[in-house]
């Protein structure tokens, strides 16, 4: 049905590596793979196998759980997007937050887990949560840069800010120069942060 690989850390693993909870849910216990160093695994590649046909309105959703924390949604693959490399922003162990529905009888899991779930595509917020968050952070960084630049040239007329007509051209040229001088500038602005969507099974 599907396989996973941890880039630079593992060979491809098929569904037999996971424990099947029911028809639509699977768990990978990270203790069996890396023990307590689960948070050193920062990415997972998930892919549909050639002989498996996922309905077009369904997705394979990927979640992660640190010991004692809720599940966090990371992203998904679909028949139109049959593989993806997803960031794994492991939550703090034992952290609370968000709704949680356990998939086992254990109240507090003792190991980190990766969960895979067949879900309705329409119910998912994103196919790649970390990439979406990076875009949001980048947009905020660019907007902040523009606002700060405009502030240094504007005047005030009552409740209005007055800026030179060519302010956007001047800002864009400076922004391009900064990005050329320091290519890491935009990358740093888009570094992934923590996420909090639960693994709802």
Automatic annotation (TrEMBL):
GO BP, one annotated term:
protein import into nucleus
Q: Which GO terms describe its cellular component?
A: cytosol; nucleus
Give GO terms: molecular function aspect only.
nuclear import signal receptor activity
Report the residue ranges that make up the Hikeshi-like C-terminal domain in this protein. 136-187
> Which residue numbers delimit the Hikeshi-like N-terminal domain?
18-125
Could you say which protein family the record assigns here?
A: Belongs to the OPI10 family.
Q: What is this protein called?
A: Hikeshi-like domain-containing protein
Q: State the species of origin.
A: Lithospermum erythrorhizon
